[in-house]
Amino acid sequence: MTKQPIPKFPKAQQISFLKKLHVDGQTLLLSVVFIVLLLFFSVAVQKFFTPRSITSMAFQLPELGILSLAMMITILCGGINLSVNATSNLAAVVAGLFLTRMVPTNLDPGLMGFYVILAFVIAILIGFLCGILNGIMVGYIGVPPILATLATFTFFTGISTGLTKGVTVTGFPESVSIIGSKTIAGVPIPFVIFVLLTVLTYIILNHTPFGFKTRMIGTNPIAAEFSAVDNRKVLLGVYVLSGILSSVTGILVMSRTMSAAYEYGTTTYVLLTILISVLAGVIPGFGKVIDIFIAVLILQVLSTGFHMLLTGIRGSSFFRDFAWGVLLILIFIVNYFVRGRSRTD
Amino acid sequence: MLDKIRYKRLFRSNEFVIFLILLGLSLTIGIINPAFFTVSTLFDTLRSSIVFLILAYGLLPIVIAGGIDISFVAIAATTSYATHMFLLNQGYEGGVFLYYLIAGVAGIFAGLLNAFLVTRFKLPIFDVSLAMFTMWYGFNLFFVGATANFSLPKGTVGFYNIFILTAQDPNVGETGLHVSVLLALGLGLFVWWFLKYTTLGRGVYAIGGNREVAIRSGFSIQSIFFVIFGMMGLFSAIAGVTQAFLSRYFNPVIFITQPLDVLAAIILGGAAITGGSGSIVGTTLGVLVIQVINRALILTGIPVEWQRFVVGVILILFTSIPALRKLRAKRMGHSNLVQSE
Amino acid sequence: MSEPIIRVEHIRKKFGGVVALDDVSLAIYPGETCCLVGENGSGKSTLIKIISGVYTPDEGDIYINNKHYKKLTPIDSIGEGIQVIYQDFSLFPNLTVAENIAINHQLAHRKKIVNWREVEKIAREGLAKINLTLPLDELVENLSTADRQLIAIAKAILADARLIIMDEPTTALTQKEVIALFKVINDLKERGISTLFVSHKLNEVREIADRTVIFRNGKKVLDQDARGIDITTMEYHMTGRKLDSTNITFSPPGDFNSPLLTVEKLSLQHAFKDVSFVLRRNEVLGITGLLGSGRTELALALFGELPVDSGHLYIEGESALIKSIQQAVRNRIGYVPDDRIQQGLFLDQTINDNIVISIIDRLITKIGLVRSRVKKDVSSEWIRKMAIKTPSGDLPVRTLSGGNQQRVVLAKWLATSPKILVLNGPTVGVDVGSKAEIHELIRQLSSQGIGIILISDDIPELFQTCHRILLMRSGRIAEEYAREEIDEQYLYQRLIFSDNPTVVASEDQWNAR
Question: Which C-chain residues 120-149 have CB contacts (< 8 A) with chain B?
Answer without folding.
Answer: 135, 137, 144-145
